[in-house]
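ASSEMBLY PREDICTION REQUEST
Request ID: AP-0331
Submitted by: J.K., bench scientist
Number of chains: two
Total residues: 737
Priority: normal
Notes: Please return the full assembly, not individual chains.
Input sequences:
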Amino acid sequence: MIPYSLTNLETLETESIHIMREVAAEFERPVLLFSGGKDSICMLRLAEKAFRPSKFPFPLLHIDTGHNFPELIEFRDRRAAELGAKLIVRTVDEALESGIAVQTPGENSRNLLQIPVLLAALEEFKFDCAFGGARRDEEKARAKERILSFRDAFGQWDPKNQRPELWSLYNARMNPGEHMRAFPLSNWTETDVWRYIGRENLEIPSIYFSHRRNVVRRDGQWLPVSELLPMTESDERNELNVRVRTIGDISCTGCVESDAATVDDIIEEISVARVTERGSRADDKRSEAAMEDRKKEGYF
Amino acid sequence: MTTAAPSQGTDERIELLRFTTAGSVDDGKSTLIGRLLYDSKSIFEDQMEALQRSTDLTGEGTINLANLTDGLRAEREQGITIDVAYRYFSTPKREFIIADTPGHIQYTRNMVTGASTANLAVILIDARNGVIQQTRRHAYIASLLRIPHVVVCVNKMDLVDYSEEAYQAIVNEFTTFATHMQIRDIRFIPISALEGDNVVDKSDNMPWYEGRSFLRCLETVHIANDRNLHDPRFPVQWVNRPQTDEHHDFRGFAGQIAGGAFKVGEEVIALPSGKTARIKAIHTFDGELQEAFSPMSVNLLLDHEIDISRGDMIARSDNVPYVEQTLDAMICWMHEEPMQVGRKYSLKHTTRVTRCIIKELQFRMDIDTLERDLDSKDLELNEIGRVTLMTTSPLTYDAYSRNRQTGSIIIVDEATNQTVGAGMICEPHKEIPALDE
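STATUS: Completed
Returned structure:
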């Protein structure tokens, strides 16, 4: 007997597939932002479900800060090759050299520098819609963003002037030079992402699991020791069992102490976690509206 | 070959329930949602810290849970909610998405947006005030948008001494006016969001109440039949043609089933062309299926080639939707620039984008009095009315009352590209019913 009903994960999955197909059909040159992180790994599986046996009707794009966990880049390249997808990489280093991006003195993180690089890449390839893996449960500015989110010719998001989004009818109309961001994982939670990774048996970079690492305590977070993290005299190095919950620029990605060795361990761990996922991101702690400000300027 | 659901890692099938809450600042909505989030451990330490920080800044002294999701700077500065906010929580039984909509300006536009995807609407009534105009407005929108389940929480019971008489009077009043509406399933719960009575656990303060707690109700309301499982509908999104050596014969029609179920071997009809074929296979990335149902996303493969492209609808030959160019719809207008009769707009229905002209505004619904205004010349922001449209290409649709997916449209301004209207298509060739539609 068929139950004629879907589970939460199946519901989220079919809705995301629908969004991906709508974007592929309505836009001329979509692109999928792929970082090698857990959310974009789910995005690639959803793309397989939406379009196979055809090739993906879009390339993948990574905006590389150059401040990476090495494990991530290796994984990124291998996964794209396995899927036979075209991977485009544009780097902050190149942008700094060519003057597209300018580093603020005293600022160590390169997250903000991704904005001009992303906008330049969209322009270079004339991409009209970029898929991102952002979720509404991550951050409260994101909680109010549409699934299909309009950006003006400067790549800016105007939170007070968003298009109403009803049923599953997505308004893809825009003028030349404007573009959209599409967020098929909007309604997924962190737990959903991990359950999906478990259900689909998806490979993820090893740094999501517990490993030994040298870390220092800054602003209540464990930051990984690397050549990119300027050390001060008061810094005390610790070697701990840690993992990352979310991955950004290595200089601002906090690690959490963890012994989680499997996806099930991680689901168990976050089910009792008392801090949100982005609580481990120093870039979000800058101000109450840090994410809102970055998004307005064109951030993912 | 099976339609059995893949394992989710646990034995239990956890369902997803979307509900909408609407109301003003004073009716205890934030308190109720805050309590649900807090008691289900969905508020985290860093969020509490951030709330504490903003509380210290404003010097209000108490933590305002609205700050949890009123994340935009303008919202915090003005102390209002601008937009629909989506919040997420789960219990071991279900996952929940709350579409929380503000009760003040632009309430209709936001409520309609939140209601469009909801399985359930929560309507809060202050036990001291009883049914007020805003209650009627919320109920009307829930009815118009065909939200399958409505839960009426009679809140602040602590302030009326947990009186059964006070509660029963409100239940009777609501039930009386709701008989004029199209609400399939109404439940009432006496609660105190502040004190936690009947929110998560049954309250000892109201032994006379024999029903379930609010959370228990959300966990158990039957939602599997909320979707249309009778009329097989498949709007084609994308034609899947790999054109590789391995798959050179593969021609799949990719889409999400918008109603009913499809089985291999069944005769189907492509609309609007009217050509028929049989389903040869139902293909998914996870393998072939014998049967697939709404809302699954699949590829349909047919036994012979017929011309089908994006925007067409596949239905079963013995159960077809309407195919028409002139239709009536209840339109909710969502833009400052009013809807003009005689003007042309872009229109999206299922996967079809076409153009339409507004032929006639039959009436405007006054959603405070629930009376029809037959003299209105246009529809302004947040107004709802029955409109006759003509489209440049035929729509293959069902009445919204029968299928929310194949009966809904959005209207888009061709100059600004803004979504300016949302429409629920009416049953054609029928007398206008008494109140709804």
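REVIEWER COMMENTS: Residues 3 and 300 of chain A are 38 Å apart (CA to CA).
SIGN-OFF: pending second reviewer
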